Amino acid sequence: MIRKLALTAVAIMAAAVTRPEFEVVSVKRNPTFTGRMQGIGSPSPGNFAARNIPLRYLCRFAYNVNSFNVLGGPDWTDSAGWDIVAKTKVVPGQSTRDAIADMSVMLQSVLEERFKLKTHLETRELPVYVLTVAKGGLKMKQAPCDRTEPACQIQLQGLIKTWPTPVWGSFGAMTDFLVRLATATNGQRKIIDNTGLTGIYDYHMEWVYQPPPGPDDPEKRTDAADSPGVSIFSALEQQLGLKLESAKAPVEVLIIDHAEKPESN
Question: Most buried residue, 21, 35, 155, 166, by CB count within 10 Å?
């Protein structure tokens, strides 16, 4: 038993030693934050930039969770924006996916060291959306190819917004579809897929974007509210034959136990 515990301790220490970290990091408070974020991610290989991002959304990127999965924290968690600029070595041959994953871990170190961030995981009963096939039946057509064929690899990238009516059009599996659907519903809830659908689908949908509650562009909020068209919920049923309903389910969440405002450098 003692040997087993000792080996476990060695493994933990080794993991801590090999944890990737940024070589250079700058953290500054952005005094212009009004509820609108400017962007977060890797503008070029080896570089990371977060512009005017509150702590809750920094946690979202660092721990690979949606913002609705990050609970707790001081009152400035959502009201203070931060600029983080960092650099690290470029790993030859590293995939984009792996590079982003490494930067997420590096950002965890920044949050823990500079923001004195302490967190833990819990499972809580929270509001969710459940996606099912509507009573009228599925209106999406299965694509006449699979993901490995070139025709299915030519797809619109992400969510296309022609304000105030966003448009989707793509070949994709339900896993891809759920990612876009989470964006379209403002990322406020976990979406549970109960459609039972497999394979690649060809879909196209248009709806009127409805901004989330809270600070946003007031002119766009007015435009969206006054524009003709259907909501994302109606569009799903009318155009794709899918239904999105509210429910409650156990959801794993990240709890912010402690955080401090860092000194700018």
Answer: 166
Q: What is the chain's length? A: 265
| Every domain of the chain and the residues it spans | 2-123+254-258, 138-240
Q: How far apart are CA 239 and CA 150, in angstroms?
A: 26
Whether the ω angle into residue 164 lies within 30 degrees of 0, i.e. cis, is: yes
pLDDT digits (tens, 9 = 90+) for 76-127: 999 999 999 999 988 888 887 788 888 899 999 999 999 999 999 999 999 9
86 in Cβ contact with 45 (< 8 Å)? no
Residue in the structure block whose two tokens are 């400017």: 38
Give one DSSP letter per residue of 146-190, joined into a string: -TTSHHHH----S-EEETTEEEEEEEE-HHHHHHHHHHHTTT-SE
Prediction pTM value: 0.67
